[in-house]
Amino acid sequence: MLKGVYLGKKADGSNLYRASITHNLKHISLGSFPDEKTAHRAYLEAARLFKSKRPFEKLIESHSEERHLLSFEKWVSLINMRDNRMYIKTPIYLEKRSFLYFLDKNTHYRFDVDDLFYYSNHKIMKRGSHLFVADYGMQVSILSRYGIKSYAVMGRDYRFANGDPYDLRYANIEIINKYFGVFKESKNGTDIYVTKIHVNGDIIVGKYKSEAEAAVAYNRAADILKQKGVKKNFTSNFVEELSEIEYASLFNRVRISDKIRNY
Q1: Which domains, and CATH codes, for the chain?
Q2: Taking a C-beta distance cutoff of 8 angstroms, is the pair 18, 10 a contact?
Q3: Segment 227-235 mean pLDDT
Q4: Cα separation of 164 and 207, whole Å?
Q5: Structure confidence by residue, pLDDT tens digits, 72-94
Q6: Residue 104: what are its φ and ψ, rounded to 5°?
Q7: I want to staple 177 with a disulfide (CB 3.0 to 4.6 A). Which of 73, 75, 123, 157 is the partner?
Q8: What is the pLDDT of residues 57-68, one digit of tens each?
Q9: φ and ψ at 124, to 5 degrees?
Q10: How far apart are the first and last CA of the chain?
């Protein structure tokens, strides 16, 4: 067999040619190929990457699905191994206090190094503008790791402090509105929380001094409307900073507008 090539078998008994390479005592699988020569070419491609003196940005830009046998994800992993002596199976490139996760050669996101273990074991996928990973058989939004709910709207409910939506480090993400139906407003330097609920248009439930009180008010308004026969599945707020007793007490005494009570 040519260097870097190992013979395997498919389920139907036909031959399968696997390519692999060893670098810094790490044995790395490069994938399976239809014939020995193609598998060997993949091995040579990986060997050239490890020997290259080009900076990683240039190597990332140079990848071509038409010209290269190695997938883009494998390409990034090998470059990271070359530069940082660590092999990571997902397309991650390590930096000093953060890392880059590449979706393609033109798109990457920056994360805190604290998230390295998670994204080393979870592949990021994208559908439209939605980023998610498969976790225990479920599609989990990347933004949920920051406490951002699925209904949240960028610019209204959360924002990026430096204006860069590709910078997903924790310090760059600011939660503006934590709860459904609750909107923070500032007046004369003081924050107030306005609760709105949508039936046939938005109805203002009330204005409150705390975010938790405003969230409970939304739940109370939804409960009143359901009792009055409104057939709608209102999203319920889970107010994590309140104990069960505190929640029940606030739920019973929170002020609700007459528009809701008399609906």
Answers
A1: 1-51 (3.30.730), 52-174 (no CATH), 182-261 (no CATH)
A2: no
A3: 93
A4: 32
A5: 999 999 999 999 999 999 999 99
A6: -155, 180
A7: 157
A8: 999 999 999 999
A9: -85, 135
A10: 80
Q: Using alpha carbons, list the distances in angstroms from residue 212 to 137, 141, 178, 249.
A: 32, 24, 9, 13
User: Which of 117, 108, 32, 129 minimizes the C-alpha distance to 63?
Assistant: 108
Quick one: pLDDT at residue 261? 93
- What are the CA-CA distances from residue 187 to residues 39, 153, 159, 192, 193 (Å)? 66, 22, 20, 8, 11
- Non-local (6+) Cβ contacts of 142 within 8 A are 124, 131, 132, 133, 168
Instruction: Provide the percentage of residues in the chain whose pLDDT is more than 70.
Output: 100
Average confidence score pLDDT of the chain: 94
Question: What is the band of 42 on the pLDDT scale with cuts at 50, 70, 90?
Answer: very high
